[in-house]
Amino acid sequence: MLKENNLACDLVIFGAKGDLTKRKLLPALYKLEQYQEINENTRIIATGRANWDTENYIKITKIAIKKFLNEDIQDIVWKKFSARIIFCNINVYESSHFFRLKKILKQKNNTVIYYCAIPPETLNSIFIGLGNANLNFSSSRIILEKPLGISLQTSREINNHLSKYFLEKQIFRIDHYLGKDAILNLFSLRFANSLLFHNWNNKTIDHVQITVAEEVGIEDRWNYFNKMGQTRDMVQNHLLQILTIITMDAPSNITSETIRDKKVEILRTLKSINIDNIHKKTARGQYSSGLINGEKVLAYLDENGANKNSQTETFVAIKIDLNHERWSGVPFYLRTGKRLAHKYSEIVIFFKKSPIESFQNFNSTLLSNKLIIRLEPDPNIQFDILNQIPSLKSKYELDIIQLKSYTLNEKYSQKYSVNAYERLLLESMRGIQSLFVSREEVEEAWKWIDPIIDGWKNTKKNNLQLYKSGSWGPKNSNILLANHNHSWYEFN
Length: 492
Ligand code: BG6
Known about the structure:
492 residues, ten-stranded mixed beta sheet, Rossmann fold, 36% helix, binds 6-O-phosphono-beta-D-glucopyranose, Dihydrodipicolinate Reductase, domain 2
C-alpha cells in the first residue's frame, strides 16, 4: 500500500562512493523501501567519477547495506530496491558530464532531488554544472550536508553562490540530529505536557546541562577534523540545535516551518563569548592516549596524518547565557568531546530548590528536582523527586527517588524507532522543510561561534588541556562549573 505524500522522485546522489552514502544514505533508502514509503516510480541515480556501471554499483550497494544495516537483506525488498538504481558517471568538474544526467532525468517527469554527499569544496562545481545544464528547474530540490562553511564568511559565500541557482524553498540543509526521534520528542515533552510547559522558565529552572559524549575518535578524518575541531563539527550545529529546541518559544504550529524562525530568535539572544570572557566561559581539551572499552587508543596527535603541533580541540565545554526574559539568570552548560568514557547524549534540567524554609532547616544541602532527558542510547526520561525517608527519628530526612520512564524502544518496540536519515530523506521527498536548517539559522550560529574560535586563537593564555581517552574530558571542564557552584551530572 502506498503511503501519503510520497511523490515519484529522482534522487540524484553526488558522492555515490563516499562514506556517507554507503554508511547512511543507502541503508536508509533500503529501509524506506522495506516500510513501503517510496513511490513505485522513484529512482536512485548515483553519480561518481569512478568508471562503474549500474550493475557494478548495485553490487557495491548490496555490500554496503549488509555491512552498515547489520541485518539480513530481504529478497523481495532488495529486488524492488535494486531495480531503482542507476549509475551515472559524472566528474563534477566537467560541466559537460551533467548532460549525461539530463538525459536520464528526461526519461521521466519525476520531482528531482539532488543530494550533495561530497566534501564542501566540491559544492560550487555542482551548482555550476547543474546550472549550465539547466537542471536547477524550479521544482527541483537540493540537499546539503553540514558543515556549511567553517565561518560566517565562508558559509555566506556558499549560500550566496547557492542562491544564484536555487531558491531558499528548494534548499534542504541537513543536520541529522533533527531527524532523531529523541530530539523531536523534545517538542512534545515541552509543549504537550502542561506541567513542564508552565515551569519552563527562570522562576523554576536553576540551570541546564547538555552533554553529547562520543567514544569515537576522528575516524581517519584528520584533514577534515583538524580544520574544524569539536566546536565547529558538533557545537555549531548539533548542540545548538538541541539548545534552541530546549529554549525556544512555542511555535504557532508544531509541524510548521515557523519552528525555524523560533530557533533563529533564540540564536540571536546568545550572549557573546569572545577574547574578553573566553576563559570564564569555555574549557577546551584534546585527547591523549587511553583506553576505550578496554582497548588502547591513540592520542589525537598520533592519529593518521597528524600534524604534531595541532592546537585543535576534540573537547569543548561552554557556559551560555541568554539575553531572554524567560531565561535571564539561567546558565546553560554544553559539553561535547571525542574519546570520552561512554557514548551518550543527555539533557539535565536542574530545578530550583524548594523555597519552603522548614525543610531547609533539616537539610542544609537540600537537593532539588531534576529532569533527566536521555537522548541516546535508549532514550528515556527520569524525574528526580524528593521524598521523606521513613524512620522513627524526630529529624525529618529527605532523599531523592527516581521516577524513570520506559525507554522508547521498550514501550513502542524497535519497529517504531526511525533512523534520522530515513526520516530526513522522506521529509525531503515530501518537500517539507521544518526539519531542515534555514540559511538564517546557519549564519546566526556562525555569528556566535566565530568570536569564540577567534578568542582562543588570539588569547595569550594557553587554553587547550590534554585529557585521557576514556575519561570525561579535561579538568577545566569541571572547574568551569565549579566556579558557579555547579558540577556535571554524572553518567549512570
Ligand atoms: C557528525 C560529526 O556530524 O556527527 C561527527 O561530523 C560526529 O564527528 C557525528 O561523530 C555524531 O553523530 P551521532 O549521530 O553519532 O551522535
